[in-house]
Amino acid sequence: MASTSQPLRGKRTCKKIFWAVFPHACFILSLVIYAFLGALMFSHIEGNRKVNLSEEYRIFLQNLTYITRNFTDNMTGNEATFKDTIHKLLKRAEQDWFVNPKERWSFFGSLFFCCTVFTTVGYGNTYPVTRIGKYLCMLYALFGIPLMFLVLTDMGDILATVLSKSYNEFRKLQSKILASKLCSGSTCNQRSELKSRAQSKIVINEPLTIMEVLKGQASVKRRPTKYRNVELFEMLIARENEHSKPARNKSIERWSSCPELARGKTMSRVIENFDKIGKELEKLDVPIVLMVLLIFVYISCAAAILPNWETNLDFQEAFYFCFITLTTIGFGDTQLEHPKFFLFLSLYLIIGMEIVFIAFKLGQDRLIVLYKKIISFCAEKKMPPKKVYPK
Question: pLDDT tens across 82-110, in order?
Fold first, then answer.
């Protein structure tokens, strides 16, 4: 029986783990599928568009040709005037004139664009040009942003649980260290002696006889007749079997009799897991300084790795880029030469945005507490003093 029960227990634990992880995996998988579908859609629409040279582009080329010829013919001309004219002309130029759509809207480029859309980063260096692409971008963001927030909330529960448990364990360890330092040798020895004396005073009673046990039973008190030894032993064995009988698992009984009930119970647990999303994040209460330090370390790690494939970035520029990205500001002033490498760190982006989101939430809670204290302080100052009437 023991050999057959162990595999059953292993299967049950595996099923419990699977149904517990299922909501989290479902959210992440749906976001990944949504990003890939968007990349295929935008790469097909924007990448295969026809490039039509507009009249503005032709005027731009004519002005540029005129300025360069005029400067080369008159070498003694003012260089500052030439730079100012070129600067004004380049301001009128559109970025789309000098970009090949198939190169920019490749699969990885479109996937990077989709990630900037539903994460609300929006660098601005890649944007749809066609009318259909713009309409689909609005529709894509309409469904993608709530899905991204749902993933952030779900990941926030996991991260909040890890942070709260780690912080509580750190506080317990800190309290134990302080208690061990405060506890002197003499007091600790006295406490150990008191514990040993209390344990030594425990009285061990001798086991009752059969007749003493049966005298306590209600059936024996009701019938004062004498029992034979065989009957006494049978009653005692029956009583012991009642107490020693293991409790039968109700879920196993339901599964053996009606499997639909067990499935319904499992489905109800899964639905409860969906309903608990965001609960752990609301309970989180850790120091805001700890979250700021965690953000600094987290961004510093990426800022040290990013310049390995982005040669135009140093540590400071990479730190600035990661901060602007994780806070979803996304100015677009720093452009990546290899965005597809940065896409492999999508998990880093999601976790980083979650850490920043938790830090903002904690800061919001602290500001609310501060506002409450200020309002209560001002209300106490404005209240008229209590009048003391003579008795």
Answer: 777 777 777 777 777 777 888 889 998 89
Q: Which of 149, 179, 209 is the last residue of a domain?
A: 179
Alpha-carbon gap, residue 199 to 178, rounded angstroms: 28
118: domain CATH number?
A: 1.10.287.70
Q: CA-CA distance, 119 to 114, in Å (whole number)?
A: 8
Any domain includes 233: no
At residue 198, φ and ψ (nearest 5 deg) are -65, -40
Indicate yes or no: pTM above 0.85.
Answer: no
Question: Do the beta carbons of residue 118 and residue 34 sit within 8 Å?
Answer: yes
The reported pLDDT for the residue numbered 362 is 86
Distance of CA 321 to the CA centre of its chain: 22
Residues 169 and 286 in one domain: no
The model's confidence at residue 253, banded by pLDDT at 50, 70 and 90, is: very low
Helices (H), the chain: 2-47, 55-73, 79-92, 101-104, 107-118, 131-182, 185-200, 210-215, 218-222, 229-244, 250-257, 259-275, 279-283, 288-305, 315-326, 339-343, 346-382
Residue 343 lies in a domain: yes
Q: How many domains does the chain have?
A: 2
Tens-place pLDDT, residues 206-245? 555 555 555 555 554 454 445 456 666 667 777 666 665 5
**Percent of the chain surpassing pLDDT 90:** 22
Domain extent, residue 303, equals 282-390
Q: Does residue 172 form part of some domain? A: yes
248 burial level (CB within 10 Å; 0-12, 13-18, 19+):
exposed
User: Is 298 found in the same domain as 174?
Assistant: no
Residue 316 contacts residue 300 (beta carbons within 8 Å): no
- Same domain assignment for residues 36 and 173: yes
Helices 131-182, 107-118: inter-axial angle, 10-degree rounding: 60
* pLDDT of 3 over the 50 cut: yes
Distance CA(300)–CA(320), nearest Å, equals: 10
